[in-house]
Amino acid sequence: MYITGIKTYMQRVDERPRLLLKIETSEGISGWGECYNHGPDLALPPLLDYLFHQIEGEDPRRVEFLVLKLNQQCRFPPGALGLAAISAIDHALWDIAGKAAGLPVYRLLGGSVRDRVRVYCGVYTAPDPEQVLDQTLKLNADYGYTAFKLSPYRRDLHSGRWGELVKETGDWFGRIREITPSHFEFAFDAHAKVFEPYKAVQLAAAIAPNDPMFYEEPIRPEHIPAWKELKSKVSVPLATGESLYNRFEFLNLLTQQGADIIQPDICVVGGVSEMRRIATIAEAHYVSVAPHNPMGPLATAVNVHFCAAQPNFHVLEFKPHGHAPWARDPYMPVDGYMELRPDRPGWGIEIDEKVLEKDDYVHWERKVTRKPDGSTAYP
């Protein structure tokens, strides 16, 4: 068996762009992968065409060999776009390997260490407590969710006194705890909007009395010593990693003892192969893995297989999709878990190519916050 061609499809999931990759082989077995949309999204198809010529004619089942080749072909370490493209190629190669063997991918990774994969739902906003109650009860009734992620910001960070915002957040979370079922868990994603670490400490102290599941990325990821200091000063589980790219960056974070939970993205770091290396390093540091996954149904399928086989997996991010018509049978939560599909080879998900033939791309770009003085802030 050898690689004969690729196809790329610019699509969307809800209102966010997504790029899907199909790798074709001489035996008629094809595999699918998904890129992270760092932007510029339209740069990904020509980049994948370029990378295809480095793997054309190769045996797709040599996943590690080919992913290493793609990384080593670069004179300098690949960045965001390069690793997003390599991630999709890695996914598609694993899919082919599973289909060729007649096995789900998690069995190629050593088999499952758990029977199902727990998920939490990203709400991402900070609704009034009564709205939080209504939303979470509905998500629990529909999908069995008992874990959710909210924003810790009730208003713009730069309007008014910081201490007022901190107090509002603490009071708000306290009220949520009072009215929601006691077994519900709530995480908070600060989206790296806080520049000063001392402010991140203050916000952590405000949510700490009500037992958050974790406190995600309050500050920027670049300066790892700041994470070491931050972790030493907070009493809540500290999570980060969606903005880190490879095992070396995670090794730096972990040796500095900068996080309790890491959140690598399987569509960012280079795929399953690199994700497993990162997770093994974390396991050696007594740190669990909660993959970042705001992606589409295909990326979710890839994550389910990784999580099924990874010993130090914690919980997977998943928000039900409203628009992804190309996924015929997406993984969906049952009682708050993704069930494995042991009778389906590869990723265990069917992609409708006829739907993909229709251009469904949507442009999206991150909004940049403006401070009252007109300067920009981290979004």
UniProtKB/TrEMBL annotation:
Under the heading SMART domains, the entry gives: MR_MLE
Q: Does the keyword Lyase apply?
A: yes
Q: Which InterPro entries match?
A: DgoD-like, Enolase-like_C_sf, Enolase-like_N, Enolase_C-like, Galactarate_dehydratase_3, Mandel_Rmase/mucon_lact_enz_CS, Mandelate_racemase_C, Mandelate_racemase_N_dom
List the Gene3D superfamilies. Answer: Enolase-like C-terminal domain, Enolase-like, N-terminal domain
Cite the entry's keywords alphabetically: Lyase
Give yes or no: UniProt keyword Lyase: yes
- What EC number(s) would the UniProt record show? 4.2.1.6
One MF annotation (Gene Ontology) recorded for this entry: galactonate dehydratase activity
Origin: domain of life: Bacteria
- The membrane-spanning stretches of this chain are none
> What are the Mandelate racemase/muconate lactonizing enzyme C-terminal domain coordinates in residue numbering?
129-237
Which BP terms does GO give this entry? amino acid catabolic process
Instruction: Identify the enzyme class.
Output: lyase
| The name this protein goes by in its record | Galactonate dehydratase
Naturally occurring in which organism (per UniProt):
Aliirhizobium cellulosilyticum
